Amino acid sequence: MWNNGYDDSPFKDYEIRKATVEYGITSIGESAFLGCRGMTELTLPNSVTSIGGNAFEGCSGLTELILPNSVTSIGNAAFVDCSGLTELILPNSVTSIGDSAFEGCSGLTELTLPNSVTSIGGNAFEGCSGLTELTLPNGVRSIGDSAFSGCSGLTELTLPNGVRSIGDYAFSGCSGMTELILPSSVTSIGDYAFYGCSGLTELTLPDSVTSIGDGAFICCSDLSKITSLAEIPPVCGSGVFDRVNKTNCELIVPVISVTAYKQAEVWNEFSNISGFSGVEVTVAGKTRKIVVE
Q1: Burial environment of residue 210 by CB neighbours within 10 A (0 to 12, 13 to 18, 19 or more)
Q2: Helix (H, G, I), strand (E, B), or coil: what is residue 203?
Q3: Which residues contact 18 (CB under 8 A, 6 or more apart)?
Q4: Could you report the per-residue pLDDT of 37-80, keeping only the tens digit for each?
Q5: How far does Cα 172 stand from its chain's mean position?
Q6: In this structure, how many other beta carbons lie within 10 angstroms of the beta carbon of residue 279?
Q7: 3-state DSSP: the chain helix, strand, coil percent, rounded to 5?
Q8: Where are the alpha helices (H) located in the chain, listed in sequence order?
């Protein structure tokens, strides 16, 4: 959890309820409104292009946030612990979301990210336990470490065909998810990326995945079906599927690769390995058919 303290704010001794930033100001400085818990309204002009680190940290009374179309970057921990925030819509001008930018915004139930966003920083939405559905835009290429860790209310996750890497602990503790289909652009899954996703019952890995980090799916205790589309078994770190019942969990792989999976480290721990000859999986508008033999 990001913790900067509240001693750096220039308004720390003021009871601010409503803030209107004058037109002409181009940036909100670091820790500008940090700790202004009583602030309920915030109006930013179209001249603002950047929001500095910790700028609105701890503004727990803020319930609605509308950023102008001029904003291109959101700094580290800019809105951390804004627990009263329920809806967030970022403009198409935003290209990057800093580390811990919205960490601890536990009241957030709706999140809309524009296609202009290409990267999501580490811990960016960690602890946003009120989120139930998440669809990342097509522009996203990387998801930082612990980006959505602890989003325990998340039941639906849609990743775009374009995401190449999923960071360490990126979705750890997202215990509400029941099915996960990773897009065909993903090549690597970080350490403990889905650690503790205990509600997950079905997992589909694309043929593009070449490596899976340590403990990536550890404690996904309800997993009953894993489909790996890769003909060459992905290289696994230690404990990838620890605490998954490998006797009962069905592992479905390309029919020509059954022997390879039975011989590969980690994969050979599964007792029930079967092959498919065709594929039908829908991800980002693409449909493929799986025929198990």
Answers
A1: middle
A2: strand
A3: 39, 40, 41, 42
A4: 999 988 899 999 999 999 999 999 998 888 899 999 999 999 99
A5: 9
A6: 15
A7: 5, 25, 70
A8: 258-263
How many degrees, rounded to 5, is the angle at CA 61 between CA 115 and CA 128? Answer: 45
196: amino acid identity, one letter: G
pTM for this model (two decimals): 0.88
Average pLDDT over residues 166-185: 96
Distance of alpha carbon 7 from alpha carbon 23, whole angstroms: 27
**Geometric angle at alpha carbon 285, from 281 and 289, rounded to 5°:** 20
The C-alpha angle 226, 142, 68, rounded to 5 degrees, equals 130
- The number of residues making up the chain comes to 293
Residue 137 identity (one-letter amino acid): P
Q: What is the pLDDT of residues 233-270, one digit of tens each?
A: 999 999 999 999 999 999 999 999 999 999 999 999 99
Q: For residue 79, give the nearest of 58, 95, 99, 49 by alpha carbon.
A: 58
CA distances 79 to 66, 85, 136, 145, 239, Å, are 13, 9, 20, 18, 35
End-to-end CA distance of the chain: 48
Decide if 183 contacts 163 (C-beta within 8 A): yes
| 3-class DSSP state of 89 | strand
Phi, psi of 212, rounded to the nearest 5 degrees: -130, 125
Tell me if residue 11 falls in helix, strand or coil: coil
Look at residue 66 in the predicted model and tell me its pLDDT: 84
